Amino acid sequence: MAIDSRDEKYYKAWMTHHTVSRRGLLRGFFKAGQQTQARIEHQDIARQTGRPPQAIIESLFLRLCNGCGECVSACPYGIIAMKEGKAELQIEYANCDFCHKCTDICQTGALESQIVPDTGLKPVIGTSCLGRMDNFCRLCEMSCPQRAIIFDSANQVTVDKTRCNGCGKCKLACYHGHISLTPLN
Ligand code: SF4
Ligand code: SF4
């Protein structure tokens, strides 16, 4: 579906003057007026998969990503793939280091340099995690550059989703395979 010219013009002008998170971007759109607000709010949808770390809100991403594959080629770690014609982040064998090469090459506005980098993926630590049973394994906690994984004195683990930026290092650090990454909405 083509984005209408009024939305696109407003979006580009707004992005030129603001540094925003995805939530901030959404708020910015709301200021465009009641009519636009209702339309964007109605159209925004839950993210079902990981996206490159500076992807715009999902409803607009799905319209602006044209499946050209430039970001796939640009990513030095090969963690972007095309699925159903849209760029998807697949963190299986390498993490995202936020090099923003994908954003730099994107010509459509689907990836935006002013968005705070966050893949939108958050770790879910399985019940069989060895660290839950004793205080020996702390591989994920030690690997997290954001200090978002915390084990308490009873070996219970929590993930601070406000600190996590979805880099995926914890998943790769857990060679037992007890961490999966899921999209946070
Ligand atoms: S920021 Fe860099 S490592 Fe992360 S997905 Fe984009 S190109 Fe790949
Ligand atoms: S995804 Fe990255 S930032 Fe988030 S908990 Fe894992 S290592 Fe930390």
Task: Describe the protein's architecture and organization.
There is one protein chain. This protein is of the alpha+beta class and 185 residues long. It has two domains: 5-105, no CATH class; 121-183, 2-Layer Sandwich (Alpha-Beta Plaits), CATH 3.30.70. The protein contains eight helices and six strands. The chain has helices at 5-16, 22-30, 34-43, 58-64, 70-74, 101-105, 139-143, 169-173, and strands at residues 80-83, 86-89, 121-125, 149-151, 157-159, 179-183. A two-stranded antiparallel ribbon has the order 1-2. A two-stranded antiparallel sheet has the order 3-6. Strand 4 (149-151) and strand 5 form a beta hairpin. The longest helix is centred in the first third of the chain and has 12 residues, at 5-16. The radius of gyration is 18 Å and the shape is elongated. 31% of the residues are buried. It binds iron/sulfur cluster (2 copies). One iron/sulfur cluster (SF4) binds next to helix 6.
Estimate what percentage of residues fall within beta strands: 5-15%
Which spans of ≥5 residues are poorly predicted at pLDDT below 50?
Answer: 1-6, 13-20, 23-42
Structural class by sheet pairing and helices:
alpha+beta
- Series of H and E elements: HHHHHEEHEHEEHE
Work out the helicity level.
25-40%
Q: Strand order of the main beta sheet, please?
A: 1-2
Q: What is the number of domains?
A: 2
Shape: elongated
- Major sheet attributes: 2 strands, antiparallel
Hetero groups: iron/sulfur cluster
**Residue-averaged pLDDT:** 84
Measured on Cα atoms, how large is the radius of gyration? 18 Å
Distance between the termini: 23 Å
The counted number of beta strands is: 6
- Helix count? 8
Keywords: 4Fe-4S, Iron, Iron-sulfur, Metal-binding, Repeat
Pfam family, one: LdpA_Fe-S-bd
Domain 4Fe-4S ferredoxin-type: 53-85, 87-118, 155-184
GO molecular function: 4 iron, 4 sulfur cluster binding; metal ion binding
